[in-house]
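Ticket #4471: structure export looks truncated?
Reporter: QA, pipeline team
Priority: medium

Steps to reproduce: submit the single chain below to the structure queue and open the exported record.
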Amino acid sequence: MTTTRLLPPPGAPRRLAAAQLANSVGDGAYYVCSVLYFTRVVGLSPAEIGLGLTVAWAVGSVAGVPLGALADRRGPRGTAVLLALATAATVAGFLVIDSFWPFLLAACGYATAQCGLSAARQALLAGLVGPEERTGVLAYLQAVLNAGLALGAAAGGLAIAADTATAYRLVFAMDVLGFLACAGVVLRLPAVAPVPAPAAGEPRLAVLRDRPYALVTFLNAVLLLRMPLLSLALPLWITERTHAPGWLVSALFVLNTGAVMLFQVRMARPVTDLGSADGAVRSSGRIMAACCAVFALSALPGSRWAAGALLVLGAVLQVAGEMRQSAGAWQIGFALAPADRIGQYQGFFGTGVPVARTLGPLLLTSLLLLWGVPGWLLLGGVFTAASYAMGPAVRWASRRSAATPGEPAVLPG
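Actual output as written to the record:
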């Protein structure tokens, strides 16, 4: 594979990828070190951290819609720059906290800025990239995201090896610099014209009254319950319910990250309209059902290497389902959003991520660790049902005349 094929097209897509890389490296280090920093340096208990992050992501998921609407009305480029700076400020705030309530305040600011930044960047992408190219560009951005997270995780590993307050603070400082760099790159992109405010009598947050789009968003959130599988449920399953070696946890993470980096663009290429997006989501449901069945088999009596082989097979199926579901969801989320409300619609559609982060760990650990094999089979059935329900929901939503996407105007840099 040539270097050109590994990079997004020149111009706005490549600059968007540079912005993604700038903050994802710092995020990767932050993700692997943050809990240790909060417990060992700040002195918070695991229960306080869990409660604080749950509240924070709940607040962030609610704030994403009005912040996305702000990006529509004020322009997505300027809004994205401000929210990237706000994220940097909240990460810096973690460096000076010393108790639970300042932590909760900083965490709510961080989650709010992150959810709003995601919606603003999606609106910016929609304004700079044509509808037929968006899913492909998002696939490149996802690959870049995984590359950045992997690099950051490696840097975070060095901080964990040092296990000092200074090392952990350097990780947070690196994340701050990453978001500052992200803001600088986004500022160099062309500006997208803001859309007019709603006429008198029209709702300012129309997405909250759009029942078909709400159903599509709900089904996408169910499918995103796959997110805590790799980071939380599967490590616990491997160590508590199988005979597989513990180091397999990190090996499966590397497998997932590497596969997305190498194959996400290729997997997204056939997804060009709502029909192909529906097909991608349905196939992802079938693949995830097979993945859950294979993971369930890994707990059966047998050698540790047999269990390990099943876990590797399950992880391959999982990442294949993940890439198909992502590509379909990107196309659906954009195609069903009115052109003058992409920011608020993407802010609403993006709530699936914080919902999965907030509710997923409790749901999956209860389902899989308490129920075992039947829990895995039930989870596979849930993925399949949600993926097949997506088609009728998309057809219902697509019948709205306002869902036909248009092209926002692009202003000179």
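Status: closed, not a bug. The export was complete when the record was re-opened. Leaving a note from the reviewer for reference: The radius of gyration is 21 Å.
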